[in-house]
Design brief:
- This protein has about 170 residues and is mainly alpha-helical.
- It is about 60% helix and about 5% strand.
- It has six helices and two strands; from the N terminus they run H-E-E-H-H-H-H-H.
- The protein has a two-stranded antiparallel ribbon.
- Strand 1 and strand 2 form a beta hairpin.
- Helix 2 packs antiparallel against helix 3, helix 4 runs antiparallel to helix 5 and helix 4 crosses helix 6.
- It is globular.
- The termini are far apart.
- About 20% of the residues have low confidence.
């Protein structure tokens, strides 16, 4: 597989991972919530969500964790596909942010988040078993995880919750 295909697979995986990171990437100034359009599928659809605003204080911590998760996902997308150490480091940072998001998940989306985390864990296992070689992301095993209908359904649930609770 060429580096170009590896890079495309890495970006596709990071895009799928951004499902949990739908909140906006913005500056740390809580008085200026930002909005962001984040691709939520390989087909290119997106959801625009603002950082937690006054109407979403109930879920502010969860929404803030999504901002951190989105930032971690963006770092994965920017890793060179021929740098296994950088991929591993950025992936582990993503997993740390993901664990925080999962811990803060409200009951309404806890099961959907757990499904998405399960998918991330499966991809992590594939990467680790293959020496953090990004070419594994184009394998049938990775594609099966990334296109699993349970993942798509969970993604929809999280998108809907974020849109209504994180200040769309």
């Amino acid at each position: 597989m060429s580096l170009r295909h590896s890079r495309a697979a890495l970006v596709a995986a990071a895009t799928v991972l951004s499902v949990l990171g739908l909140a906006a990437c913005g500056d740390d100034d809580a008085s200026a919530p930002a909005a962001s359009s984040v691709p939520t599928s390989e087909a290119g659809s997106s959801t625009t969500v603002a950082a937690a605003g006054p109407d979403s204080l109930e879920h502010a911590e969860f929404c803030a964790s999504l901002v951190r998760l989105q930032d971690a996902s963006a770092r994965i997308a920017n890793v060179s596909s021929d740098d296994p150490q950088a991929l591993e480091a950025s992936w582990r940072a993503y997993l740390d942010a993901e664990a925080q998001t999962e811990a803060l998940a409200p009951p309404e989306v806890k099961a959907a988040i757990a499904t998405l985390v399960g998918g991330t864990d499966a991809i992590s296992g594939l990467l680790a078993a293959n020496g953090w070689d990004a070419t594994v992301l184009s394998s049938p095993e990775a594609r099966q995880v990334l296109t699993d209908p349970a993942m798509t359904s969970a993604q929809g649930e999280v998108n809907d919750f974020v849109a209504s609770s994180c200040g769309a």
